[in-house]
């Protein structure tokens, strides 16, 4: 079983999904995947068929304060979902299901 990753971004200031957020996935210094959130704020298959290991998930939300939000993740076998909740001056994330 390989590793897969999905994400979504919620604009908690406006209470809606955040459409058009650029997201990149890096393994080491290599960009292995990327995309833009759709109208539902999701990228359902950001990374598929990945190897287990340490990855960097980089969001570019376009908020007035946060221009780049970077998470370092240790991905084991199976599916991982990483949501980002963002507003003008706050952000948080959690391990989704």
What do these coordinates show?
This protein is mostly beta strands and 97 residues long. It has one domain: Transthyretin/hydroxyisourate hydrolase domain (Immunoglobulin-like, Sandwich), CATH 2.60.40. It is built from no helices and nine strands. The model has no long low-confidence stretch (mean pLDDT 94).
What features would you highlight for this structure?
single chain, 97 residues, mainly beta, Immunoglobulin-like, five-stranded mixed beta sheet, four-stranded antiparallel beta sheet, 9 strands, globular
Helix content: under 10%
CATH class division: Mainly Beta
Query: Over all CA atoms, what is the radius of gyration?
Result: 13 Å
The CATH homologous superfamily name equals Transthyretin/hydroxyisourate hydrolase domain
Largest sheet: 5 strands, mixed
Could you tell me the CATH topology label. Answer: Immunoglobulin-like
Number of helical segments?
0
Instruction: Please trace the helix and strand order, writing H or E for each element.
Output: EEEEEEEEE
Please tell me the overall pLDDT: 94
Tally of domains: 1
Strand content: over 45%
Q: Which class best fits the helix and strand makeup? A: mainly beta
Number of strands: 9
> What spatial form do the alpha-carbon principal axes imply?
globular
Give the CATH architecture.
Sandwich
The parts where pLDDT drops under 50 for at least 5 residues are none
Question: What's the N-to-C terminus distance?
Answer: 17 Å
């Amino acid at each position: 079983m390989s590793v897969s990753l999905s994400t979504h971004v919620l604009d908690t200031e406006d209470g809606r999904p955040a459409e058009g957020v650029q997201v990149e996935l890096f393994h080491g210094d290599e960009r292995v995947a990327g995309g833009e959130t759709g109208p539902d704020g999701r990228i359902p298959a950001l990374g598929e068929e990945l190897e287990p290991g340490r990855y960097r998930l980089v969001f570019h939300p376009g908020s007035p304060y946060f221009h780049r939000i970077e998470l370092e993740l240790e991905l084991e076998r199976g599916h991982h979902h990483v949501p980002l909740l963002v507003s003008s001056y706050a952000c948080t994330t959690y391990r989704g299901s």
